[in-house]
Amino acid sequence: MATNEEMKEVILEYVIEEYADEDDDVQYDTPLISGGLVDSFSMVSLKRFLELTYQISIPDEKATPEAFDDVNKIVELVQEYL
Amino acid sequence: MTNIGSYDERVKNFSWSIAEKELDYKDGDILNIGWYCSDRICNMGKAGKTAMIWEGLGGKEKQYTFNDVRLHSNTIGHFLRSLGINNSDRVCLFMDKLPELYLGVLGILKIGAVAQPLFSAFGDESLFVRLENAGTKAIITQKKHAGKVQKILDRLPNLEHIIIVDYDGKKPLREKEIAFSLEDSKPVEKLDIYPTKAESHSLLHYTSGTTGQPKGVKHVHYSLISQYLTTKWVLDLQEDDIYWCTADPGWVTGTSYGIFGPWSLGVTICVLDTGFSADSWYQFMEKNKVSMWYSAPTAIRSLMKAGDEAVKKYDLSALRHLASVGEPLNAEAVIWSGKVFGKPFLDTYWQTETGSMMLTNFPGMKIKPGSMGKAFPGITAVILDPETFEPITSPNKPGLIAFQPGWPAMMRTYWNNDETYQTKFKNGWYLAGDRSTIDQDGYFWFIGRDDDVINTGGHLISPFEVESALLEHEAVAESAVVAKPDEVNMEVVKAFVTLNPGFQASDVLELKIMNFIRKKLSPLAMPQEIEYLDKLPKTRSGKIMRRLLHAQEWGEEIGDTSTLEDD
Questions:
Q1: Tens-digit pLDDT profile for residues B209-231
Q2: Is B22 within 8 Å of B230 (Cβ atoms)?
Q3: Which of A24, A40, A48 comes nearest B276 by C-beta?
């Protein structure tokens, strides 16, 4: 099973690759949703990525902007469903 | 006392000259929206009044008076002129909700050029088709979005300048890029404002249809007449209001009611340039004592999901009036807002092409939750029989929403596409493309679109545009795109695809295709679900029968399938 640190790295890399613009400096605690980096529509693809990568199912009601707001919080959410 | 007073009296005695008189405009006068929203307000003795309270990422705040707005828009106009931008040239604004966006729109208009605001989340292909169609001469953007412009630059021979408003010198400027810092520029006290007239082209907003590429909706400076009066009577803006329109000026609400309406009335606006969260919105409203809030059903439903307790944490007692636009506001949301904010959201109905509100619920009027309300005074709105295009006179019968042309903010044509513009009229009526009923009291009730266009979170998505982009993915052989019902966004994009030989249907491929569309077009256009089919339903002539797929998604009757291709 991936450690928290490994998970953080994988998710951060994906976020940078898929959602960040050229000059965005994205860290583990960078606000993704409230910071405007990932919008509510794109959250669907981020959720799908997490479910595919970690073979989990995140209920829609748990996939809130708050729960997805930074990589640290996303890791906490993923851990709940592993 | 509300600005509109008695709706019935206003309807009886209505003339657009009410707005013309209040704006000191007479037929044939110079009419420049940029001047009306800044210089005129200063001339009225409000130069020192706060025009804009802006908050960005990390709590960064800026405030501008109406004199600042006047000076900054002058400065932007002067800079554009120095680059050779002239009357009628199209200048695109492609940025987040930075102050430069709001001030830039006015600066562009002041020199008689045409402002073309585009949603900054657009991918490079969506950006390309809109810039190419408009023959855009300059684009004002941020360094983080400039890469998308560079990617398509060689296909845009008309684009001469890429103006970067936040250049920091860390990387060298690339081809056609030029840095412009509003804060470091010497304010231009006096600018020769271009003498635009009522029918001079002001704005180009792009909208999507079922077929073909997005259409550039041409608006003129005279649209201000409608925008001023609808803002005053429907949004009921008062001198001391702090007004928050949550729409992005990349879309028409963000210009008509995010800039022109409030600033022509000399009212303070708030702008929050961060992503959405219930807490950050409520916090922003509490901090700035927002008194009038104009938002969208998708946002309202998201706030509903966040729960009543979230509202209770904040002091929102300054709120006195709420309105909504973008898609039909469901009755539950109206009732919920009445419960938690003490005031219901009043639904308004209009579209990019109409330029200003057409059907609305008015302050002081009896609200029927779920209804779009009644026609704005001076607007003749009817429901037409879909076969005869004659008005339906009996109540509660479904038909096509149509308006008698001639209100000031009505589009003048589709840019380079007058042929399509002409198809929007039948028997002298402008067809809005939506279906509705009218009840016995004259209230309109939305039923749905009259075409295949997808309304997701208040934004129109062309199925054709998404289908075309899907075909550019190496795995996709055929595609069909329809709306799928969604609790928060009303509709979302769903795609059906068949795959090319050598590709296997999988969840991983689905995610890859979703991301492909998100980057190419926009997050709004990204299919939220992709279903793999062995073959798409087609007519015998080979046309994909989207209707069948749509019916499947909505649990509707499939209807006549006699033209369906045989197996």
A1: 777 789 999 999 999 999 999 99
A2: no
A3: A40
Q: Does A23 touch chain B (CB under 8 A)?
A: yes
CA distance B293 to B311: 15
CA distance B509 to chain A (A): 11
**Which superfamily does B454-554 belong to?**
ANL, C-terminal domain (3.30.300.30)
Residue-range domain boundaries for chain A: 4-81
Q: Which residues of B touch A39 (CB under 8 A)?
A: 121, 275-276, 523
Q: What is the torsional sign of CA B306, B311, B316, B320?
A: positive
Determine the pLDDT at residue B567.
46
Q: Which two tokens stand for residue B260?
A: 């022109």
Residue of B nearest to A25 (CA): B144
Q: Which listed CATH number (1.10.1790.10, 3.20.19.10, 3.90.550.10, 1.10.1200.10) goes with A4-81?
A: 1.10.1200.10
Question: What phi and psi values does residue A73 have, to the nearest 5 degrees?
Answer: -70, -35
Q: Give the model confidence (pLDDT) of B315-368 as tens digits.
A: 999 999 999 998 889 999 999 999 999 999 999 999 999 999 999 999 999 999
| pLDDT tens for each residue of A10-62 | 999 999 999 988 778 899 999 998 888 898 889 999 999 999 999 999 998 89
Query: Which CATH number is associated with domain B7-435?
Result: 3.40.50.12780
Q: Determine the residue of chain A that is closest to B168 in CA distance.
A: A23
Residue A3: per-residue pLDDT: 85
What token pair was written down for B442? 């004259």
Residue with tokens 């420049």: B32
- The token duo for B218 is 């041409």
For A42, the closest chain B residue by CA position comes to: B523
Is A35's CB within 8 Å of B274's CB?
Answer: yes
Tell which residue, B530, B512, B416, has the closest CA to residue B467. Answer: B530
For chain B, the farthest-separated pair of C-alpha atoms sits apart, in whole angstroms, at: 75
Closest residue in A to B525 (Cα–Cα): A41
* Residue B502: count of CB within 10 angstroms of its CB: 7
Which residues of A are less than 8 Å from B145 in CB distance?
21
The pLDDT assigned to B566 comes to 58
Contact B144 A49 (CB under 8 A): no
Determine contact: A26 vs chain B, CB below 8 A. no
Q: Is A39 on the interface with B (CB under 8 A)?
A: yes
pLDDT tens digits along B378-389: 999 999 999 999
Task: Tell me the chain B residues in contact with residue A45 when contact means C-beta distances shorter than 8 Å.
Answer: 511, 514-515, 518, 526
* Inter-chain residue contact A65 with B456, CB threshold 8 Å: no
What the block records as the tokens of B21 is 């008189």
Which of the residue ranges B285-289, B326-330, B511-515 would you say has the lowest mean pLDDT? B326-330
Q: What does each C-alpha distance from B443 to B94, B374, B392 come to in angstroms?
A: 38, 5, 14
Residue extents of the structural domains in chain B: 7-435, 454-554
Please name the member of A18, A21, A66 whose beta carbon is closest to the beta carbon of B277.
A66
Q: CB-based burial of residue B551 (10 Å sphere; 0-12 exposed, 13-18 middle, 19+ buried)?
A: middle
Residues ≥6 apart with Cβ < 8 Å to B23: B36, B40, B224, B225, B228, B264
Amino acid identity, residue B148? K
Predicted TM-score of the model (pTM): 0.91
What number of other Cβ atoms are within 10 A of residue B361's Cβ? 26
What pLDDT, on the 0 to 100 scale, is given for residue A4? 86
What pLDDT does B218 receive? 98
